[in-house]
Design goal:
The chain has 320 residues and is α/β, with parallel strands linked by helices. It has 2 domains: 17-176, Rossmann fold (3-Layer(aba) Sandwich); 198-318, Heat Shock Protein 90 (2-Layer Sandwich). Helix content is 37%, strand content 24%. It has helices at 26-43, 54-63, 67-72, 88-101, 119-135, 155-164, 207-221, 225-245, 290-297, and strands spanning 17-24, 47-51, 73-75, 106-110, 142-149, 167-170, 173-176, 198-203, 249-257, 260-267, 300-306, 310-318. Strand 4 (106-110), helix 5 (119-135) and strand 5 (142-149) form a beta-alpha-beta unit. The two termini are 31 Å apart. Residues 1-12 have low confidence and may be disordered.
């Protein structure tokens, strides 16, 4: 699926959201770039939100001294969001809204867990980075620095990152990124099912059949309790969307993949909103809550949708 184009820096107006890549080599280079970025923010009386791994968080805390840094630099816990990149954009919305309400300009530092992410998670992290330009195009002005360690991040991931960051920090200077592209995002193909998969057709009035198929696969894989109930709710939401918006019917496939349980839904519908499920529904909003809920309940949600092939929604739940 090709998603719509996101705005780049080539227009007449400077974008309110500055999305900047920082390719670095090793911990000392990370500290040099991140600390300089934070110190510049403090000198400009800006607040800073830092979302990095535990090791980088400890390094930055040790490197930053002074009461002012303690007051204006906040370390946010992305671990509480789980591993699903689909939860990151609403979290940034919440963090930015709180900071803006405090009356201070905002900068952020965000480093995704590329080293520990699965191939499927890395694909969704790439999409998350691309979506940031679209999501915050009309937001209050803020600046997000995204560090990438070139000694550990795969070359293909770094190439993709260069294409979706309009700006870069390179050789100690902030500026436009010549590798940025505003072309549509190109998704990775979904990996084939690992092992035998059971297929079930469903239509109106047959949501119980969907839940039974999911519960049967869960029993074989050892998923039970609250996690099973959450998956059943998510599966019901996706199947109901197929019936309502995907031509009245769909196909469910379920399988186990090591320590993961996968449920894949296919229908004839076409999703046109690239941010579907990734924005928190407004109070009183009539629709659009289903895929938001699904993102909150599953460890990974992958959506592929084209007019020619219809829509595939793959839900992954970790068996832990």
């Amino acid at each position: 699926m090709n998603a719509p184009r996101a705005a780049g820096p080539g227009g007449a107006a400077t974008p309110a959201f500055r999305h900047e890549l920082y390719a670095y080599k090793g911990d000392s280079a990370f500290l040099q770039g991140a600390v300089s970025f934070i110190e510049d923010a403090l000198a400009a009386d800006e607040t800073v939100l830092v979302a990095v791994g535990d090791d980088k968080r400890r390094m930055l805390r040790e490197a930053l001294d002074g009461d002012r840094a303690g007051r204006q630099v906040s370390f946010v816990d992305t671990g509480a969001l789980g591993r699903n990149p689909g939860r990151l954009i609403p979290a940034w919305h919440d963090w930015i809204a709180k900071s803006v309400s405090d009356g201070l300009p905002v900068r952020g530092i965000s480093e995704s867990p590329w080293g520990t992410a699965t191939p499927a998670e890395r694909g969704e992290l790439r999409y998350h980075e691309w979506l940031l330009n679209l999501t915050f195009a009309a937001s209050p002005a803020w600046w997000l620095l995204c560090p990438y360690d070139v000694t550990t991040v795969e070359a293909a991931v770094l190439d993709s990152a260069r294409q979706c960051h309009p700006f870069q920090l390179a050789d100690g200077a902030h500026g436009h990124n010549p590798a940025f592209s505003d072309e549509p995002f190109r998704f990775d193909d979904l990996a084939p099912a690992c092992g035998p998969a059971r297929s079930v057709r469903y239509a109106a009035g047959e949501l119980a059949k969907v839940r039974e198929a999911v519960a049967e696969c869960a029993a074989r894989c050892g998923l039970r309790g609250t996690r099973l109930q959450e998956l059943l709710v998510a599966a019901t939401e996706v199947a109901a969307n197929s019936i309502r918006h995907g031509g009245g019917s769909g196909t469910l496939r379920t399988w186990g993949d090591g320590d993961l349980l996968v449920c894949e839904f296919r229908d004839a519908g076409h999703i046109t909103d690239p941010l579907v499920g990734r924005l928190r529904p407004a109070p009183g909003q009539g629709g659009g809550r289903g895929l938001w809920l699904v993102h909150q309940l599953c460890d990974l949600v992958q959506i592929r949708s084209t007019p020619q092939d219809g829509t595939t929604v793959r839900l992954t739940t970790a068996l832990r």
